[in-house]
Amino acid sequence: MKTYKIIYNLLLAGALSGVAGCKLTQPIEQKARIAAPQTFAGQIDSTGIAAIQWKSFFKDAQLVALIDTALQNNLDLRIAAQRIEMARTNILAAQGALLPSVSAEVTGGGRKFGDYTMDGVGNYDTNFSDNIDANRRLPAPFLPDYFVGLRSAWEIDIWGKLKTQKKAAYNRLLATEKARHAIVTGLIAEIASAYYELIALDTEMAIIQKNIALQQSAVETIKIQKEGGRANELGVQQLSAQLFNTQSLEVEKQQEIIESENKLNLLLGRFPQPIVRSTILEQTLPQTAQAGVPANMLRRRPDIQQAQFDLLANYSEQQAAQLAFLPSLNITAFLGFNSFKSNLLLNPGSIAYNAIGGLAAPLLNRKALKAGQKRTEAASLEALYTYNRAVLTGFKEVSTSLKKLENNRKVNDFKTQEVEVLQQAVVTSKDLFATGYASYLEVITAQRSVLEAELSLTDVQKNQYLALIELYRSLGGGWE
After folding, report:
1. Are 286 and 468 a contacting pair, CB within 8 Å?
2. Separation in Å, CA 129 to CA 115, 132, 137, 138, 258
3. Which CATH code for domain 28-98+159-326+366-474?
4. Cβ atoms < 10 Å from Cβ of 260
5. Which of 258, 249, 219, 251 is nearest to 235 (CA)?
6. Is CATH 2.40.50.100 the classification given to domain 100-156+327-360?
7. How much of the chain exceeds pLDDT 90, in percent?
8. Would you kindly state where each structural domain of the chain is located, as residue ranges?
9. What is the strand order of the sheet 351-360 is part of?
10. CB under 8 Å to 198, separation ≥6 — which residues?
């Protein structure tokens, strides 16, 4: 009676645990995700530039070839690919948890029972029985035990805990794939930006060299005037110093070009070497750059999609942590040959099998489970905040790039007019200086001003390309 009462109490405890668990497994209410605006500021509903494939978006054949090389060789992409493979193994492990485990086993051992124990007396007395033959007689005093066969264990997923863990692993895999897409978009944008920076450096180098030629001409002119008594040594020194300063800029610019080429080669996954590139005159910018609707950005931006899959994975893990409080149904079994004599191990009479099933539920000291539940709840909220931050970051980047592109176009118009005026001023100052109507200081000022303005115009043009590339990346373009 006592045995039946114990079993009854255990079953009752398991039933009560199951009832309590039904409350635990109710859907977990999360706070609402951030509500995104319907349109970008200053934009009409249209198809954004992110829908354009990168090979069509970038018109420069040299740049397209560089990007294609980077997508094959970049080490960050290869690292991301291995992370995807690691996440894929988690799915395999979660799938395996749903199936019974079966292992082949060959074991051997033995034990010597005490003479004054129940087992020791029983084994000793058994050998005097008339019901056993020589093969069944127990070895004494050391009792061997040999087993060859199969053992199995299986947790039946009656509450869906294991399926929930599998779902979490699957969402983790999707998140790692989106992380790789984010690396691709970032890599394409970084290569394109480095390429246009390199082209801008080439343009600045050409401007500096052109101004060196102008300044050398001015130095030669003032030296001739000095010999004719129309200028003094101070003018020669001032113009020569300006020439030396510009020549030093040329050397500095050469170093910047080398550093920019090496940076680009690193992204391409290769050792330093010259970069084949076009000129700034061969580059074109679209007249308009539409961002499209925010909903498209939310679907296309890999970092937002990654945050969303992480959010779903954490939600599933939170549910699995709650389901861990419910009773688990486990079945264990074995089938094989078992004997205390090695020569009889494979005898048909040594065949043995066993199957045990039972429910087990945590009743006391559930702190570890509660800690796991609290951890998953915190991780789920963290994932929610990360998702909201990714959405805010996306809108910030798109808005900044749109305004930067618009304002850089305006600045470019003013800078172009400024350069045209200052170039004409250099010609005028040179003519007036030759005829004695302008001083060498006016020539120096005009030449310095045009150099600074031309370099500034090049920087503005470069920023236009960089703003367009950043807009393309921030909208989620380039990862197809």
Report:
1. yes
2. 18, 6, 9, 11, 96
3. 1.20.1600.10
4. 19
5. 219
6. no
7. 67
8. 28-98+159-326+366-474, 100-156+327-360
9. 101-112, 142-156, 328-339, 351-360
10. 257, 260, 261, 264, 275, 277
Contact assessment for residue 134 and residue 177, using Cβ atoms and an 8 Å cutoff = no
DSSP assignment of 388-422 equals HHHHHHHHHHHHHHHHHHHHHHHHHHHHHHHHHHH
Residue in the block written with tokens 């749903």: 98
For the record, the structure tokens of 331 come out as 């079945």
pLDDT digits (tens, 9 = 90+) for 52-104: 899 999 989 999 999 999 999 999 999 999 999 999 999 999 999 999 999 99
Residues in the chain: 480
Average pLDDT (255-281) is 93
What is the distance of C-alpha 83 from the center of its chain?
9
pTM: 0.82
Burial of 231 (0-12, 13-18, 19+ CB in 10 A): buried
In whole angstroms, what is the distance from residue 393 CA to residue 33 CA?
A: 14
